[in-house]
Design a protein that fits this description.
This protein has 472 residues and is mainly alpha-helical. The protein has helices spanning 20-40, 108-128, 139-166, 168-180, 202-223, 229-267, 280-295, 304-311, 355-380, 415-425, 429-438, and strands spanning 49-55, 64-70, 333-340, 343-350, 405-406, 412-413, 469-470. Helix 2 packs antiparallel against helix 3, helix 5 (202-223) crosses helix 9 (355-380) and helix 6 runs parallel beside helix 9. The protein binds benzoyl coenzyme A.
Length: 472
């Protein structure tokens, strides 16, 4: 069944009305979600109409429709990708057995933890971004922010559905707790580090969408391989929506880079701050920060948790089914870049415990593709600067590099050198204050802030100067 029933209080393609208990549990959670959305969702725009897409089907063709709506009226629902008849578990100890329609009892705790960790990031990002609307660089950007926000809300629904449908009372308690934790709260923080950082300005926001949402892509893709079929199907559909979030990040930073280059050329200087642009050195420091914080999200280089998730058949590799090996990895090894005393060395580690690092490698390769496109823009303007990803050991708090200080170019350095150079490598208070000073709202259709270029085209075939959010 590909269609989604929109006559239901909770739109879904999982025949919710046939499971009264579950329906009741979710209908009880729904008003609490809406309360959370009103308290912690986008600040100040809840009554405005925005031109948003809503999922209406899980078919690859025409899965969404676009229309004006007020965010609290968004139809958050539960959509799983179509089941694959006869799907088999693709890896680990249960490889070749039928995928599980229900939670295997022995893996209940581990699976719940994975789903809660994934679920926790979704409301966290909405909380992190809630004040951005007030300083939007254009209506086009404002609309994209809101699109990402409502879909992160839907991704929370996706995880809450799994918890309520498959984990009984524990699951319902976890669903509640997902609405109780708060990004950055000292007493009840969100689970993963990056989701407690602030997203105070639009440069940070676009960096977040580029680097942190991309972790989402890789984690969801790994969970989409899961032997627990409802999780696999849920994540497959989430990935469809996720693609737009990364588009927002890559094109957002790309448009900032473009504007900077235009100003550099026009005024023949690197110092574009006085012309209302963000200099490339500042952009590089923001890259260093957001990349390193996002690299931490993959966990330790050598992780027995990761090995267990895999052996149990719960979380696979990126594109697991396309890999030409035995999908059990008991004998295999994998090269892992690690701290070795005061050096950085590559060691062959057992492949099973190296799965976090392997996923991080896939992620880094994907980030490099985005950086290459930004650098092409710089080159096209005849400017001799290259943006770069920091070394994976730079500014880490998780894994082996947490014990050392590593420069962006990958040297293990002393505390003294770190202290002396830190301001060159990470956003300083002055950088943040400067970026903040640029954050003046621009809300006239077709107009853009001084520090960002307009996009080449609008959303869903609409022109760039379309009224993407009706503020009147
Ligand atoms: N911060 O063996 P280790 C997204 C904990 S983003 C704090 O190193 P493991 C999105 C870890 O939990 C995708 N704690 O790592 C993006 C463990 O604690 P316990 C989110 C951390 O377990 C933008 C201990 O350290 N999805 O969707 O192999 C907008 C040792 O763990 C961190 C997922 O993450 C950290 N950075 O892997 C919206 C997928 N890293 O269990 C949405 C589900 C590690 O000993 N999660 N720890 O108490 C997982 O697969 C794994 O939990 C992790 C960690 C990959 C996160």
């Amino acid at each position: 069944m590909a269609g989604i029933d929109y006559t239901e209080r909770i739109p879904n393609n999982v025949n919710l009305s046939e499971n009264r208990r579950l329906q009741r549990a979710l209908e009880e959670w729904q008003p609490r979600f809406l309360e959370w959305w009103k308290d912690m969702g986008p600040d100040g725009f809840q009554a405005k109409e925005a031109y948003l897409r809503t999922a209406v089907s899980v078919d690859a063709q025409g899965w969404a429709k676009f229309d004006y709506l007020r965010m609290p009226e968004y139809r958050w629902g539960i959509f799983l990708a179509e089941p694959e008849p006869g799907r088999l578990i693709g890896f680990g100890d249960h490889k070749g057995k039928a995928a599980w329609p229900d939670v295997p009892g022995e893996y209940r705790g581990v699976l719940r933890r994975l789903i809660v960790t994934q679920g926790d990031t979704e409301p966290a990002s909405v909380e992190q971004q809630r004040h951005l609307g007030r300083t939007c660089p254009s209506l086009y950007d404002l609309r994209n922010l809101f699109q990402v926000n409502v879909e992160e809300g839907r991704h929370l629904w996706a995880m809450v559905y799994l918890l309520d449908a498959h984990f009984g009372r524990d699951g319902r308690e976890e669903s509640e707790a997902l609405l109780q934790r708060r990004s950055g709260d000292r007493d009840k923080p969100r689970i993963l580090g990056a989701f407690n950082e602030r997203t105070p300005d639009w440069l940070s926001y676009y960096m977040f969408c580029f680097f942190t949402d991309r972790d989402g892509k890789y984690q969801l893709a790994s969970l989409a391989e899961s032997g627990f079929d409802p999780l696999s199907r849920t994540c497959r559909f989430m990935l469809t929506e996720e693609a737009h979030h990364m588009f927002v990040g890559e094109t957002g930073v790309g448009r900032i880079v473009q504007r900077t280059c235009e100003l550099m050329r026009e005024h023949k200087t690197d110092d574009v701050r006085k012309f209302g642009g963000i200099d490339l050195a500042t952009i590089q420091r923001y890259i260093n920060f957001h990349c390193s914080v996002s690299l931490d999200l993959f966990g330790s280089e050598v992780s027995t948790n990761a090995a267990n998730f895999y052996t149990m058949g719960l979380k696979g590799r990126f594109e697991e089914t396309k890999k030409p090996d035995d999908h059990q990895l008991k004998e295999a090894t994998y090269p892992v870049v690690e701290l070795d005393g005061d050096r950085i060395a590559t060691r062959e580690e057992p492949a099973l415990v190296s799965l976090n690092e392997r996923l991080r490698d896939d992620y880094v390769a994907d980030c490099v593709r985005g950086l290459t496109r930004w650098n092409e823009t710089i080159k096209r303007h005849g400017i001799d600067v290259e943006l770069a990803l920091p070394h994976r050991g730079f500014h880490r708090v998780i894994g082996s590099f947490a014990e050392a200080k590593v420069s962006p170019d990958g040297r293990v350095i002393s505390e003294a050198e770190w202290d002396a150079r830190r301001r060159d490598w990470l956003p300083t208070e002055e950088d943040q204050a400067f970026v903040q000073s640029l954050m003046q709202p621009v809300v006239e259709p077709g107009k853009f802030a001084s520090w960002i270029a307009p996009p080449p085209r609008g959303i869903n075939g609409k022109p760039v100067d379309f009224e993407y959010v009706r503020l009147e």
